[in-house]
């Protein structure tokens, strides 16, 4: 084997090690960001002093579509408003009646809750024409087809 | 305070002296699938007007939490009792590493109080819960005479599958301690509070205990309960995920 060939082989090994290291760093970065996001979600209260509640929701990846279930107990079903922008979903729904935090706890000042509000982010841009919605017993089901290239 | 006893890393406190009449039942309610057990126990405590007689705490296994209830300072794991029913109730889920010790401590305590049957109620997560109007209830019991009562309620035996969480540990420890135990599970959401499933469980359990429990209020106020239980459910979900709760969706290969 000539010297050039040996150098080439050597650099190939270096490049392979570099590639594996970068991949490993990327995976670790993703893992840390995911954990930080979980911590952020856990520390974010489910209500805001601005007078809205954040609903509980869950996202299921069914391969060709995402299914979101959003729990909106005591919401006026006729007032549910769902908007899509790029990869985000903005949900708003007025409560059937106002609630004060102090009803449930001895504290909370004069915060009065009048609606549910939250923003959910998906890993792809949403085409509203590929979304179907069902409401049932104070809960919303959103089926969102993934774009073909995703 | 009447008595305080150390059980390993747990401290058990009784606020007053009480004795259980036979046959005595213990109901364990810890946060789990759909908060079904906790919602049901909370309703039971209210309608039966059970008295808070004690509590449990652990500075090792539980976060630094105290419960303030009706202006009184209470421990995070609360104990309520009537003549023949003891309810151990907690809205806080200890970390999974605490479950084995907690199970043994509770069984030891139940034995000392003369409990003859341990009851547990939880949800069984089903993926199509959004579609369901009629919920099925399943049971696991080590007491043959209870099986007949449960069958008469329309509940079905839980034939095969996996159980994950505090109730799974409790079943195993109760078997080892030869303490009769029954677990009742109704189809429910995993990640949303499910008072309808709680109501179904209570209808079944009340037949086992031999009491009448009105669940009408639980069903009528389901939306209000779901609203109120949001933060508890949100706090429980990361623990359920860490425990690998998704195993309950699987089927064992070897039956």
Summarize it.
The complex is a heterodimer of chains A (150) and B (255). Chain A is α+β, with helices and mostly antiparallel strands and 150 residues long.
Describe the structure.
By secondary structure, chain A is an alpha+beta fold. Helices cover 30% and strands 39% of the residues of chain A. In chain A, strands 1-2-7-6-5 form a 5-stranded mixed sheet. Chain A has a 4-stranded antiparallel sheet with strand order 3-4-9-8, with no helix packed on it. The two termini of chain A are 45 Å apart. Chain B is an alpha/beta fold and 255 residues long. Helices cover 34% and strands 26% of the residues of chain B. Chain B contains 8 helices and 12 strands. In chain B, the strands form 2 sheets. Chain B has a 10-stranded mixed sheet, sandwiched between helices. In chain B, a hairpin with a 3-residue loop joins strand 7 (77-81) and strand 8 (85-90). The N and C termini of chain B lie far apart (50 Å). Chain A binds chain B through residues 38, 42, 45-46, 53, 55-56, 58, 60, 69, 71, 73-74, 99, 104, 106, 136, 138-139, 141, and chain B through 68, 127, 130, 189-193, 222-224, 226-228, 230-231, 233-235, 238.
What CATH calls the topology of chain B is Rossmann fold
| Helix proportion range of chain B | 25-40%
Instruction: Describe the oligomeric state of these chains in a short phrase.
Output: heterodimer
Q: What sort of overall outline of chain B do the alpha carbons produce when their principal axes are compared?
A: globular
How would the blueprint of this fold be written?
The complex is a heterodimer of chains A (150) and B (255).
Chain A: H1 3-43, E1 47-48, E2 52-53, E3 56-61, E4 65-71, E5 81-85, E6 88-100, H2 101-104, E7 112-121, E8 131-136, E9 139-145
Parallel strand pairs in A: 2-7
Antiparallel strand pairs in A: 1-2, 3-4, 4-9, 5-6, 6-7, 8-9
Chain B: E1 3-7, E2 10-14, E3 24-29, H1 36-47, E4 51-57, E5 67-69, E6 72-74, E7 77-81, E8 85-90, H2 99-112, E9 115-125, E10 137-141, H3 144-152, E11 156-157, H4 166-176, E12 181-188, H5 195-209, H6 216-220, H7 222-228, H8 230-242
Helix pairs in contact in B: 1-5, 2-4
């Amino acid at each position: 084997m000539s010297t050039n060939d040996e150098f080439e082989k050597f650099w190939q090994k270096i490049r392979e090690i570099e590639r594996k290291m970068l991949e490993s760093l990327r995976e670790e970065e993703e893992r840390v960001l995911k954990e930080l996001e979980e911590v952020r979600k856990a520390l974010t209260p489910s209500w805001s002093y601005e007078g809205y509640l954040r609903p509980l929701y869950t996202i299921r990846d069914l391969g060709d579509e995402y299914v979101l279930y959003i729990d909106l107990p005591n919401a006026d079903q006729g007032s549910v408003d769902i908007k899509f922008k790029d990869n985000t979903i903005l949900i708003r729904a007025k409560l059937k009646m106002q609630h004060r935090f102090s009803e449930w706890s001895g504290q909370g000042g004069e915060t009065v809750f009048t609606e549910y509000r939250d923003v959910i982010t998906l890993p792809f841009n949403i085409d509203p024409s590929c979304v179907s919605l069902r409401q049932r017993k104070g809960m919303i089901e959103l089926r969102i087809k993934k774009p073909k290239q995703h | 305070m009447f008595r305080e006893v150390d059980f390993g890393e747990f401290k058990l406190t009784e606020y007053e002296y009480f004795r259980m009449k036979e046959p005595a039942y213990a109901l364990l309610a810890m946060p789990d699938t759909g908060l079904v057990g906790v919602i049901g126990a909370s309703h039971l405590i209210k309608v039966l007007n059970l008295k808070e007689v004690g509590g449990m705490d652990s500075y090792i296994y539980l976060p630094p939490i105290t419960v303030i209830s009706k202006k009184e300072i209470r421990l995070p794991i609360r104990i309520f009792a009537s003549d023949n029913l003891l309810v151990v109730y907690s809205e806080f889920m200890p970390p999974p590493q605490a479950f084995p010790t907690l199970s043994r401590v509770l069984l030891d305590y139940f034995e000392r109080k003369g409990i003859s049957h341990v009851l547990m109620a939880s949800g069984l997560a089903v993926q199509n819960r959004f579609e369901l109007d009629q919920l099925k209830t399943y049971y696991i019991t080590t007491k043959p005479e209870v099986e007949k009562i449960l069958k008469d309620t329309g509940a079905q035996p839980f034939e095969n599958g996996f159980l994950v969480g505090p109730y799974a540990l409790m079943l195993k420890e109760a078997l080892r301690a030869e303490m009769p135990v029954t677990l009742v599970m109704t189809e429910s959401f995993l990640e949303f509070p499910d008072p309808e499933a709680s109501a179904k469980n209570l209808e079944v359990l009340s037949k086992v205990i031999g009491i009448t429990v009105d669940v009408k209020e639980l069903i009528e106020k389901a939306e209000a309960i779901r609203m109120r239980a949001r933060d508890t459910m949100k706090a429980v979900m990361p623990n359920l995920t860490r425990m690998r709760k998704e195993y309950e969706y699987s089927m064992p290969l070897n039956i």
